Amino acid sequence: MTLLVTGGAGFIGANFVLDWIAAVGEPVVNLDKLTYAGNLANLASLAKDARHVFVQGDINDRALVAGLLAKHRPRAVVHLAAESHVDRSIHGPADFIATNVVGTFSLLEEARAHWTALAEPDKAAFRFLHVSTDEVYGSLGPHDPAFSETTPYAPNSPYSASKAGSDHLVRAYHHTYGLPTLITNCSNNYGPYQFPEKLIPLMIVNALAGKPLPVYGDGQNVRDWLYVGDHCTAIRAALQRGRPGEVYNIGGAAEMKNIDLVRTLCATLDSLRPCAAGSYADLIAFVKDRPGHDRRYAIDARKIRSELGWAPAESFVSGLRKTVQWYLDHGDWIAGVQSGEYRKWIDLNYGNRESQIANR
Q: Of the residues 32, 137, 159, 314, which is catalytic?
């Protein structure tokens, strides 16, 4: 029995592969293109583990995907490969369409061909699990109910629109062809191995270097935060017990304003690695907001709790402390990902944002 995991060298993907092999022990074929956010260092502990087969390649390479399916005959595909950063999608949306929409279509076509040729009971047991985001639902007002699985889609960025398109394709392949699909829509993840373009690792890396901590706009944007380890257990629950054709929202029950998150993170750093003078919070600087910035996301995770018995094990405080400690303990990993490409991106995205307020 084998899984085919796409994007398994990225942040969530690597955490999922590590979690799956540790908790289940079932072999994984890991297909990853190794773009800027894919990093084999994330999987260093599996370098000599025969249960992990790494293949560098593109999900749009249909001959490669077909060959992997034919050779390894996986019982499930866990589709995590995606371009996932809103800011990058604003600067360059084409890559998001190519990977998230066309790539998902290519993968679905090959998975459908593989599944169609299976004999029972393998055909009935097969699953195609597509990992998506809460951003497909759009933006909430301060008093709106949280996103549920029946919330209408209203994506507001090229990234979220591309993920919405991929979700619709997955749903259509179940309803049209009978492919046994599952869709999970998660809230903002954080934890080990997250590329430091995202909010939490960016703040940690900048704080340790004594650089400004850039907070968009007024800092009042609200997100629901999910520790990546909890996300991995939720994906496992959906894969093992989820009903084909269903959608499951996965949230951490940790809504927080961005500015409050950054201040909490600074306080955590102050306690774990105090700076020479004052607080890391002294580095907070409000900068020009990004275009079309969604105001609030919140996940209603009652369905996955009631149907699959999943609930997050980490509170935001405990998960954040684990995350900060991991980055403090892995300076070599941080140095390894801060390549010329990373520095170029930071200059592109933050270099021209005029500082609006230098926080006290």
A: 159
In a domain, 56, yes or no: yes
Overall pTM surpassing 0.85 (yes/no): yes
Residue 349 lies in a domain: no
Residue 134 annotated in active site = yes
Annotated catalytic, 159?
A: yes
**Within a domain: 35:** yes
| Active-site annotation holder among 32, 58, 134, 224 | 134
Q: What is the count of structural domains for the chain?
A: 1
Domain span at residue 298? 3-194+227-254+293-314
Q: Are 17 and 5 in contact (CB under 8 A)?
A: yes
Bridge-based pairing state of the strands 188-190 and 222-227: parallel
For residues 272-288, one letter each, b for 16 or more C-beta atoms within 10 angstroms of the residue's C-beta and e for the rest, the string is: eeeeeeeebbebbbbbe
Angle between helices 228-241 and 11-23 (to 10 degrees): 60
Rounded to whole angstroms, the Cα distance separating 320 from 120 reads 45
CATH number at residue 237: 3.40.50.720
Per the annotation, the verdict on 135 as an active-site residue is yes
Is residue 358 domain-resident? no
Per-residue pLDDT of the chain (360 residues; tens, 9 = 90+): 899 999 999 999 999 999 999 999 999 999 999 988 888 999 999 999 999 999 999 999 999 999 999 999 999 999 999 998 788 889 899 999 999 999 999 999 999 999 999 999 999 999 999 999 999 999 999 999 999 999 999 999 999 999 999 999 999 999 999 999 999 999 999 999 998 889 999 999 999 999 999 999 999 999 999 999 999 999 999 999 999 999 999 999 999 999 999 999 999 999 999 998 899 999 999 999 989 899 999 999 999 999 999 999 999 999 999 999 999 999 999 988 887 565 564 466 546 544 443 343
Residue from 135, 167, 224, 314 carrying the catalytic annotation: 135
